[in-house]
TrEMBL record:
GO terms for biological process: menaquinone biosynthetic process. Pfam families: HEPPP_synt_1. This is Heptaprenyl diphosphate synthase component 1. It comes from Paenibacillus polymyxa (Bacillus polymyxa).
Length: 163
């Protein structure tokens, strides 16, 4: 089995001084990525190991993009320049993390994987919209909320096992 080095590969995409100085970012989803890598790699031959690493990397970047967007303050009101900068950087960083998967998979010629992972992102976002709508109308209890949030956190990784 190939050694696990996805976090090291992700660093060049997620560690930027400007972002780290001016806003809080979500942690790299290491435990989920490691588990996904093990599942992908368990029966892989060396020929496919780099592809498994690519899928683990792009899925973790998309998850970081979604997690970053989840941290964006949606309250209206006047913000300080520092708060506005932090919010804007979260929007841009989330978009950047999410967009890198397109580039990395396209460069590897994995167009079908782009489509499948994009569909998974669409499912997660549609589910989140339903969740937020239910919350706004006070139709969710704590158990329902937690169940849905757990589902969203695992959805991309589940779909990535079938790329």
């Amino acid at each position: 089995m190939k050694p696990y080095r996805v976090p090291q590969l992700a660093r060049k995409y997620v560690e930027y001084d400007m972002i780290q100085q001016h806003t809080e970012m979500p942690a790299f989803p290491d435990s989920r990525t490691r588990l996904m890598f093990v599942f992908l790699n368990r029966n892989a031959q060396e020929l496919h190991a780099s592809e498994d690493e690519l899928y683990a990397l792009v899925t973790s970047l998309v998850q970081m993009g979604l997690d970053t967007h989840d941290m964006i303050d949606t309250l209206s009101g006047i913000r300080s320049p520092e708060e506005m900068r932090s919010r804007q950087l979260k929007v841009l960083a989330g978009d950047y993390f999410s967009s890198r998967f397109y580039q990395l998979l396209a460069l590897a010629g994995r167009i079908t994987a782009i489509s499948k992972l994009s569909d998974a992102v669409c499912e997660v976002n549609a589910g989140k919209m339903s969740l937020y709508w239910g919350m706004k109308q006070f139709r969710l209890d704590a158990t329902q909320y937690l169940t849905q949030m757990v589902r969203f956190k695992k959805e991309l990784f589940y779909h990535s096992l079938h790329l």
